[in-house]
Amino acid sequence: MRFSPHLLDEIRARLAVSQVVGRKVALKKKGREWSGLSPFKMEKTPSFFVNDQKGFYHCFASGEHGDIFTFLIKTEGLTFPEAVERLAAEAGVTLPKPEVRDQEVYDQRQRLSAVLEASVTFFEEQLAGPGGAEARRYLTEKRGLRRETIKAFRLGYAPQSRTALKEYLTKAGFTVEEQALSGMLISGEEIREPYDRFRHRVMFPIGDWKGRTIAFGGRALDPDAPAKYLNSPETPLFHKGHNLYNAHLARSIAHDKDRVIAVEGYMDVVALTEGGFAESVAPLGTALTPEQVALLWRMTPEPILCFDGDSAGKKAAYRAIDTVLPLLKPGMSVRFAFLPDGLDPDDLVRQQGPEAMEAALSTAQPLAQVLFDREWAQDDWSTPERRARLEQQIRILTARIEDGSVRSHYEQDMRRRLHAAWGNDRSTAPFRPSRETGFGRQGVPGARPGANFRGMPAGGYPRGGGRLGAGGGRFGGIPGGYGGAGRGGPGFGGPGAVPIHALPSSSLLNSPLASSDQTRPGYREMLLIRTLINHSWLAAEDAEALAQVTFVAPVLSRLRDAILAAVSLDNSLDSAGLRSHLVQTGFGGVLDLVDRSVTHKCDRFAEPNAGHAEVEAGWRHALALHDRQVGLKAALESAERAWHEDRDEDAFQRIRELQAEIERLARPGDLDENSEDAAAI
User: Fold this and answer.
1) Which candidate, 647, 643, 654, 650, places its Cα nearest to that of 439?
2) Beta-carbon contacts of residue 54 (< 8 Å; ≥ 6 apart)
């Protein structure tokens, strides 16, 4: 459903941000704002502010910024429509009615949901009644569950009868067709009389993200039953691979703990919750799916996948790797926790206590480690041919990662693991000869280890095949052996040597974007700061974008935060008032340097007398270019690391392309890293 801006504004107008946020954060009034401890970061000093007049919150500890809808999405894992629906109900705002066809689907879903809710009530009553004695003993004596836990999960019992539930639902007003469509009856052309799907089983209601019952899982009490666990079939409400058991109860706890634990079975979830691990969820009788991974990531960036330590558990973990690997994103992954052999989470908590489970979780391994261990365990890699095959296997696997940045880092990580596993001596180190020359990764005789000049990868660029002196000249690491035997001697490049004109230009080498000192400021970030100071209204109107800007110089990052804090406390603060406040808080020297540095005639929009439209256009353009430069710098560092590890010509070409792009974007007014102003910052 699409929501009009007018509708969203009406909800915002009826609900103060402090009212919504205050349910999760203890807020204190501070001037025109509210402050409290960040719900996104652990901290002792409040850095989280709420401004009801402006309708937003801002967290200086984490950079999170948003309105009432964003807050629910970030803290509870809701989708945007879910956040709108909840806040609209709270605000008393009526949402628009769906179209006729949508209404028919909605009505059907409501009826099926009612069938399932009635079934939950029936199973709960059966568990509490005389016929549920065996199921109660199983839950309380064999599994050791408390009655409070049984009630919280709404566990129940499906009696042995083939028609007990059917009769109950029919009396409640539901048709046989509705009961079958909801998955509660087994029916079909060859079945004369539909009958109850679940019989003589402990029943686990399965809820959707909001907690509405959409299906059931049943655990057989008869040891001779053909299926120990039985799940509802696919229905209009239920798709196995799109849901997680207990997600609706676990998600808020997962956010608070910044941890979610995915285990294999319903009973594992219930037992872990009773043991103090309420952030536990489980797939629904299937191997982990991409949709379930997305749900886990809505709760925390690095969920823990928990498996038994036996061979079956390892195989399940390895299948999960293949599911997750293509989906990896920056900051989003999984970890793997393996339990002692022969114990599942339920057994471990009951036999050894919550401490044993916590110990197992504390040793959770990153995906990269488990991936490498899986490949390494497949064979004996003692010969060059086998090692080449292992390298090939790993290259094929990492190539499946769709995100280019994550893929690049995985390639580097796998190379490091291979080097560590095989050792670094000449007899075992992986060896990849240059296509042109036959020289391998061992380098060029005479090259001084680590010799490089500013802007180049440590260790130099790809080796050429020319004849080389043995003296280790100043540029011994340059392709083709430039530098020769003496200090700065002439040297000779052979086939494959990189020509001198391909080396980085002096202007690029002096640019802070290519400098090895990453704390020196660039011209453009100084320009952004000066624009903010001279036009303080930008900090209020573009606070969210400003909070996300990456500044190379830490002092400029702190100055940005101080600007945001000052403007959020007093949105009427003009340029003079802002400058005075910043001087009083110790930023006077930095402001002077910023004023001296921004002198380029093309940047008039940063000056105090520039018009509103000119300022806004110039600000947007400078911000976009700055973000582009920061991204290029990160990509260059990644390419340099790849080159340093592998001496691969593709990596070298990538470095040249990135350097050319950085030089193209570099402003003629960029600070020289050796200037007094740059050094001062």
Assistant:
1) 647
2) 540, 568, 571
Q: Which CATH number fits domain 523-680: 3.40.50, 1.20.120, 1.10.860, 1.25.40?
A: 1.10.860
Phi-psi region of 256 (alpha: psi -120 to 50; beta: other; left: phi over 0): alpha
C-beta separation of 254 from 295 below 8 A: no
Which is it for the CA torsion 611, 612, 617, 622, positive or negative?
Answer: positive
Task: Name the percent of the chain lying above pLDDT 90.
Answer: 38
Residue 337 has pLDDT above 80, yes or no: yes
One-letter amino acid identity for 651?
Answer: A
The least confident of 49-63, 92-106, 464-478 is: 464-478
Number of other residues whose CB lies within 10 A of the CB of residue 378: 10
For the domain made up of 104-238, the CATH class stated in words is alpha beta
Phi/psi region, residue 15 (left: phi>0; alpha: psi -120 to 50; beta: rest), is beta
Neighbouring residues of 57: CB distance < 8 A, sequence distance ≥ 6: 17, 21, 48, 49, 50, 51, 64, 65, 66, 67, 71
C-beta of residue 244 within 8 angstroms of C-beta of residue 288: no
Contact 32, 53 (CB under 8 A): yes
Tokens of residue 473, six digits? 């000249």
Which of these ranges, 232-236, 444-448, 559-563, has the smallest mean pLDDT?
444-448
Domains 104-238 and 523-680 share a fold: no
Query: What residues does each domain of the chain span?
Result: 5-91, 104-238, 247-372, 378-422, 433-503, 523-680
pLDDT digits (tens, 9 = 90+) for 502-555: 444 444 434 433 433 445 567 778 888 888 888 888 887 767 667 778 787 778
Rounded to whole angstroms, the Cα distance separating 337 from 334 reads 10
- Tracing tokens 């191997």 back to the chain, one arrives at 287
Spatial separation of the C-alpha atoms in residues 581 and 562, rounded to whole Å: 9
Instruction: State pTM to two decimals.
Output: 0.56
CATH class entry, domain 5-91: alpha beta
Q: Is the pLDDT of residue 472 over 70?
A: no
User: What class does CATH assign to 247-372?
Assistant: alpha beta
Please give the pLDDT value at position 151: 95
CA angle 188/193/196 to nearest 5° reads 85
Cα distance between residue 113 and residue 65, in whole Å: 36
The residue that leads in pLDDT, 77 or 645, is: 77
User: Which ranges constitute the DSSP H helices of 92-208?
Assistant: 100-128, 133-137, 147-152, 164-171, 176-181
Sign of CA dihedral 173, 178, 184, 185: positive
Predicted confidence band of residue 679 (pLDDT cuts 50, 70, 90):
very low
Angstrom distance (rounded) from CA 179 to CA 368: 46
Percentage helix, strand, coil for the chain under 3-state DSSP, each rounded to 5: 50, 10, 40
Please check the confidence at residue 407 and state whether its pLDDT lies above 80. Answer: yes
Q: What pLDDT shows up at residue 252?
A: 82
Task: With a cut of 90, say whether residue 336 has pLDDT above it.
Answer: yes
Cα separation, 560 vs 568, whole angstroms: 12
Is residue 341 within 8 A of residue 298, CB to CB? The reply is no
Closest-CA residue to 276 (of 208, 371, 355): 355
pLDDT in tens, 495-513: 343 443 344 444 443 443 3
